TrEMBL record:
Source domain of life: Bacteria
CusB-like beta-barrel domain location: 221-288
Sections of the chain in a coiled coil: 129-172
Residue ranges constituting the Multidrug resistance protein MdtA-like barrel-sandwich hybrid domain according to the UniProt record: 35-204
Keywords associated with the record: Coiled coil, Signal, Transport
A GO term from the CC aspect: cell envelope
Keyword Coiled coil: yes
Signal peptide residue numbers: 1-21
Protein name: Putative multidrug efflux pump
A family per Pfam: BSH_RND
Keyword Signal: yes
Biological process, per Gene Ontology: copper ion export; plasma membrane copper ion transport
Amino acid sequence: MKRLFSMTFCLAALAVSSANADDIPVSATLLKIIETVEVPAQQSGALEKVNVHEGSLVERGEVIANVAAKEMELELSVKRSEQAIAQREATNDVNIRFSRKSLEVSQSELQRALDAIATFPNAVTDTELDRLRLLVEKNRLEIEQSSEQQAIAKLTAELKSAEAEITAEKLAKHQIAAPIEGMVVRVFRRAGEWVDIADPVVKIVRIDRLRAEGFVRSEEAALGLQGRSATVRVTLPRSAELVAPGKVTFVDPEVDPVSGDVRVWVEIENVDLKLRPGLRVEMSISNAAVTDNTDDQAAEEVAVGS
């Protein structure tokens, strides 16, 4: 892998040596960090573990610290049990089935009473007939009541499910994860210390990609530098010259009123993590885009002339 990186730098150096001498020079170029994050605690409590130290390299999503979560784990267990009970109640239709059977029986009794009256007018008293009719109506209402209770049970089950999800989300926040990949440059809290919500725990900087920031003359900035290729060169102690290709990602719309220069940014890959923020480097921006546009215009003129 190291040989591959060395070949990459050598090829880039050859490309620079053969580059157009009219490339736009960038003055006062400094390497800077693109992304830095102070990772906060999302739940208050005592830190059980801090898994990193200054200089640790972390991946995005890697757990870097844990806040004590025993109480929240028990609460989640309770919420899930309540959710299971509510789901059982929501699927329990015993009362509905019993009410339907009761309605069938009461309707049969009423019908037999009516049949008896049709044969023998005084076989069933009016009071008994009213009682049987009332029983039928009561059973109908019990079916409606059981159906309503089951609907409420289903809503309760959804509520308990949401409460369990909220508790699980809170529990997950007891794990502090790295939002970016990079290097830990500072640890603010140690294991055993108390943290509140939003307290910074560690500071991470991204070092695999850096920004070279410098200045070009205002007339050169007007050429449309955004998106052009650029080259960054730096000579480190006891090391050959490193050459890193990049691309212009930002051209400041404002001109410095004193120097008449315009600030530009070029993002580069920090191969093998050899480059460090704060280094002074040399940088130039390719003039190829202007040349290509000129060639295109000439080709169009020839096409029109023909």
